[in-house]
Design brief:
Elements (H helix, E strand, L loop, with lengths): L15 E7 L7 E6 L5 E3 L11 H12 L4 H12 L2
Antiparallel strand pairs: 1-2, 2-3
């Protein structure tokens, strides 16, 4: 998959149409697509695919890591901001 191009994850076709949005409990709604060739629905989610936490929590944790914050302080910070 190339950046900026949307292709069906099942057949690789670029023959698709928008097909509503999926409600996502951790982040914003996710755009759904319908492939006209294989007649299946798919979403485009190139970053953090399959992650249990939201993108905001993951990027905050990465940011704190590169700033040299200790694991305990990073954990406390994330719990205060995002709960959990």
């Amino acid at each position: 998959m190339q950046l900026g191009r949307i292709v069906c994850q099942h057949c690789g076709s670029e023959n698709y149409k928008k097909h509503g949005k999926r409600d996502n409990k951790h982040a914003d709604d996710v755009q759904r697509y319908y492939c006209k060739d294989c007649k299946r629905n798919f979403i485009v989610n190139p970053a953090f695919e399959g992650a249990k936490e939201s993108v905001r929590v993951i990027t905050a944790a990465i940011d704190l890591y590169f700033k040299g914050v200790s694991l305990r302080k990073a954990s406390d910070h994330i719990k205060q901001l995002y709960g959990g």
